[in-house]
Design brief:
heterodimer; A: 352 residues; Immunoglobulin-like; four-stranded antiparallel sheet; 8 helices; 9 strands; elongated; B: 229 residues; mainly alpha; 9 helices; 77% helix
């Protein structure tokens, strides 16, 4: 018990990361819509939509299906035939006029049941009309709120394209957060060394940079795997992705500089100066440049970061512990490296 | 030369000017160095013209321009502190305050980079006359980029002088660290080539100036620690 109290932060790290792994991988995704076929229909026609669900239980409770416009007008399916827990057919009589000021418009499809709650496939269905008459359309479409059920069970949001990979948020993003925390900490020790001249401070900075580089590389790998599953490629020309790779090169140069100098004092002074300078270069690379151009990453190119579109409270209760857990893990690993370096340094000091 | 013995007693401006004069004289007397750089510049421009697409797009032209600039800047950076940190280190440090030495080096590199920018622009325009741009605004943008770039090159070159003083190592140091500036330069110059005025690129120019400020201030701040080794 005494060991746990002494190393409370290591115990906290183990607890948090265990919680992240357990809760983050065990919690199911909210039910959602995988596919809708056909995805086009004409006004005035009768259309049968084949809907394929994910994590759904269509057989367990009655299902309601709606087509909804962006201005909150909706129609309800006239009849629904459930094939199995994840497939159903919904029959709609599309009114003759659409609540739209254009010939063709995108509509969302909503399915709702007491057990699975409500799921939306946004802008999936394209409806076309021959004549535009919004006044008539208002009488043909409902405008009051439809009957929708809320999901009671704990689940992560279902996002088209992301699906199960949404869990990677806990690892990919947290690793980057932890990397920046470690880099910030290493800059603190580098500055401390330059002020005080204590070689042990330089060893602290060195150990933190190495773990930060490891986390950065893991961040790139998890990002690449995520990209393959969502964007369909291991690597893209996305600016944030490439700037992150370049920032890794900056820190690899730090490691090369250290390996190129023999004298410990000189090595510490040069690498500490470079380490501070490197963070100055990394800040515009990762936080400024990606915001100037289009990016697939949230928070860049005008996309909101960690807004309601990317993250909800069910993700936050795992994400924040993951960030703290990975920061603590980084500090733990770097303390191990530091202790090894310290022993070497002590041995060399004795020999000299 | 006897006057140089009293450089520390002179005003900072005067000592910077004398140091600059020394660097330019040294460059003139060893003209093969700067001559080699200019030959390389002309050669690379001609090769791009000869092997490149004659109807190249604006972005292709711009990319080639900044790539040539980047690699020529490595050659400049490789020998900035060659003598001052090597053979003449103690001699120079007794004569000149380290900060004044750094400022004079930054001004010297800035001048060479401006020369490269203008010569590259001339050669690129000769070989690709269909690309239209506002020369004055282009040069103004280069001035803003070169302030940060010259400080960056001096800082990296100083680090390099402590290790093996090789061009390869300097490239490894400068290439990733110069990316924010080169990236912004590329982005701003694309806008200039598309006919957008430099004065309507407010956000980009502010970022370039902010990066300049960060690089120059951190170079000056950390320089004293590097000079002590």
């Amino acid at each position: 018990m005494g060991i746990v109290i002494k190393h409370w932060w290591k115990a906290l790290c183990v607890v948090l990361l265990t919680y992240v792994l357990w809760y983050g991988l065990k919690t199911p995704l909210k039910p959602g819509i995988l596919e809708i076929f056909p995805d086009r229909a004409r006004a005035g026609e009768n259309v049968e939509l084949n809907i394929k669900g994910y994590n759904t239980h269509f057989l367990a409770s009655p299902v309601l299906v709606y087509i909804k416009s962006s201005d909150q007008h909706w129609i309800k399916a006239q009849s629904i035939s459930v094939i199995d827990d994840s497939q159903l057919k919904a029959n709609f009589q599309i009114p003759k006029h659409l609540p739209a000021s254009s010939i063709s418009e995108q509509y969302s499809v909503i399915i709702s049941s007491e057990l699975d709650g409500s799921s939306v496939f946004p802008s999936r269905l394209i409806l076309q009309q021959d004549t535009i008459n919004t006044e008539l359309a208002k009488s043909e479409w409902n405008s009051e709120n439809p009957d929708l059920f809320a999901l009671k069970a704990n689940s992560f949001p279902f996002r088209n394209i992301l699906y199960e990979t949404i869990r990677n948020t806990f690892f990919h993003v947290s690793l980057w957060f932890a990397m920046f925390a470690l880099l910030g900490s290493s800059v603190y020790y580098s500055a401390k060394y330059l002020r005080g001249g204590n070689l042990l401070d330089d060893l602290q900075a060195y150990s933190k940079v190495r773990i930060a580089v490891l986390f950065g590389v893991l961040g790139l790998i998890t990002g690449s795997v995520w990209a393959k599953n969502t964007w369909g490629t291991w690597w893209t020309n996305d600016i944030k992705l490439n700037m992150s790779a370049i920032s890794m090169l900056i820190y690899l140069a730090y490691l090369i500089i250290r390996s190129g100098i023999e004298d410990p004092d000189k090595k510490a002074r040069v690498s500490s100066s470079y380490n501070i300078f490197a963070l100055v270069a990394v800040i515009p690379l990762i936080f400024v440049l990606p915001r100037l151009t289009d990016s697939l990453h949230p928070g860049n190119g005008g996309n909101p970061a960690f807004g309601s579109e990317d993250m909800d409270n069910s993700l936050r209760i795992v994400f924040y512990p993951a960030v703290i857990g990975f920061i603590l893990l980084g500090l733990w690993l770097s303390s191990l490296l530091y202790r090894v370096d310290y022993l070497f340094w002590k041995q060399q000091s004795k020999e000299n | 030369m006897t006057g140089n013995l009293y450089l520390n007693y002179l005003s900072p401006m005067k000592s910077i000017l004398i140091s600059l004069q020394k660097d330019f004289k040294n460059e003139w007397r060893n003209f093969y160095q700067v001559g080699g750089l200019l030959c390389f510049l002309m050669g690379i421009c001609y090769l791009i013209y000869f092997f490149g697409d004659k109807n190249q797009s604006i972005s292709e032209w711009n990319l080639k321009y900044w790539l040539c600039y980047l690699y020529l800047s490595f050659f400049i950076g490789s020998r900035i502190f060659e003598d001052d940190m090597g053979r003449f280190r103690y001699f120079i440090h007794q004569l000149l305050h380290p900060l004044n030495l750094l400022i004079s080096k930054i001004v010297f590199v800035f001048t060479l980079l401006m020369l490269i920018n203008i010569l590259l622009l001339i050669f690129f325009s000769i070989f690709n006359p269909e690309i239209q741009l506002n020369w004055l605004q282009w040069v103004l943008m280069c001035v803003m980029v070169n302030i940060g770039m010259s400080a960056l090159i001096c800082f990296s070159s100083l680090i390099n002088s402590h290790i093996k003083n090789s061009t390869l190592l300097l490239t490894i140091i400068i290439l990733p660290i110069s990316f924010p500036l080169i990236g912004m330069a590329y982005s701003s110059s694309i806008s200039l080539l598309e006919g957008i005025s430099l004065f309507s690129l407010g956000s980009k120019i502010r970022i370039v100036l902010a990066i300049d400020l960060m690089i120059v201030s951190f170079s000056l701040l950390l320089y004293s620690h590097l000079i002590r080794t």
